[in-house]
Design brief:
alpha+beta, two-stranded antiparallel sheet, 8 helices, globular, Acyl_CoA_acyltransferase, Plant_NAT, GNAT_dom, N-acetyltransferase domain-containing protein, acyltransferase activity, transferring groups other than amino-acyl groups
């Protein structure tokens, strides 16, 4: 039986928006069938990137597939002369359930990779949950991607119980120019560090950058001096571009939530933090550029996370705080998170030109101990 013909074309704002949103609702999105509400802008996840595109597949005047991609310059080790490479990120691949196994997904990926190649992209990469075997097999077996990194996604609920931050710790907001200087100096060699970090810091979704250090320790000086122990992070307000809602909770999560609430009602004196309602639309803060220096900086990272929690608790829409770190990063011991909600991610990568092929084997088989920088524009 012959398949019906379909065409691949660029997304057209007003005329395609309703059909794309309907397609998203009909496809499983994220863990436990969470629902992502783009608030009328299907391109919201890529719109803040330097270069981006959205392609759709159309068959019989119906949109049956969609894919998004973006391009940027990042730090990639083993990539001379300056350890910088142009990479393309694949995200948002969706195919209508009744239109699968007809080559639509393959055609969308192929056309996106052609766009990457026409813009001199050296590597294409994608991210998915480590347990999403269907997606992993699809990209590795059909599109020849290779496992690259296994970052960890840390999630912490926001409640209305404010943390008391140690009086021995100073937390200060730094100007964009200072933040850019610190990031380039201390994280410029970090894997996948974006060359346009200044654009991220100046974006309206970036709420600011904060540093923490111990009172009485040396302050941040104009000559580049930093304290013996210090930490920094920035915050991105994802809730301004899309909302999440948990469509079907895992049984363990639901039981834990109910038990937690029951204990809180029976023993109010315990003052347990209240759990947010994940079944109604909510936004979240994403902590990025988390960095620490010095022997006691772990305590400073935790204080910064508590500061962000207190800031988020004043927002009616923010219900969780998310960050993503390298799989072997020691920061996991200092960033508050719930193991029940957190999970491991998987990045897969593919070379797109002959020059990249010469370095690809070394790149994909190197387990870097350096912190991974996760661009908040790709969340």
């Amino acid at each position: 039986m012959a398949f019906k013909k379909f065409i691949i074309r660029s997304y057209e704002g007003h005329s395609d928006r309703a059909q794309v949103e309907d397609l998203e609702r009909r496809c499983k999105v994220g863990p436990s069938e969470s629902v992502l509400d783009t608030m009328g802008d299907p391109m919201c996840r890529i719109r803040n990137s330097p270069m981006y595109i959205m392609l759709v597949a159309e068959m019989d005047n119906e949109l049956v597939g969609v894919i998004q991609g973006l391009i940027k310059m990042v730090t990639v080790h083993t990539h001379p002369p300056k350890d910088m490479a142009k990479v393309g990120y694949v995200l948002g691949l969706r195919v209508s359930p009744h239109s699968r196994r007809k080559g639509i997904g393959s055609s969308l990926v192929q056309r996106l990779e052609e766009w990457f190649t026409s813009n001199d992209v050296e590597y294409a990469y994608m991210a998915t949950e480590k347990e999403n075997h269907a997606s992993i097999n699809l990209f590795m077996e059909k599109y020849c991607y290779t496992k690259f990194r296994t970052p960890t996604i840390l999630i912490n609920p926001v409640n209305h119980h404010l943390f008391q931050i140690s009086s021995n710790i100073e937390i200060a907001m730094v100007k964009v120019e200072e933040a850019e200087s610190l990031y380039r100096r201390f994280m410029g060699s970090t894997e996948f560090f974006p060359s346009d970090i200044e654009n991220i810091l100046r974006n309206k979704l970036s709420l600011g950058t904060w540093v923490a250090y111990f009172k009485g320790d040396s302050d941040f000086g104009l000559d580049g001096q930093v304290p013996n122990s210090w930490a920094m992070l920035s915050v991105w307000n994802c809730g301004e571009i899309f909302k999440l809602r948990l469509g079907k909770a895992p049984l363990s999560c639901m039981l834990f939530t109910k038990s937690w609430s029951l204990i809180g009602r029976i023993f109010p004196c315990m003052k347990l933090p209240t759990l947010p309602n994940f079944f109604s639309p909510f936004g979240f803060y994403f902590m990025y550029g988390v960095h620490q220096e010095g022997p006691f900086s772990g305590n400073l990272v935790r204080a910064l996370c508590q500061f962000v929690h207190n800031m988020a608790s004043r927002s009616e829409q923010c219900k969780i705080i998310v960050t993503e770190i390298g799989g072997r990063d020691d920061l996991i011991h200092h960033i508050p998170h719930w193991k029940l909600l957190s999970c491991q991610d998987l990045w897969c990568i593919k070379t797109l030109n002959n020059e990249g092929t010469n370095k690809f084997h070394e790149l994909s088989n190197t387990q870097s101990s350096i912190t991974l920088f996760v661009d908040p524009r790709e969340v």
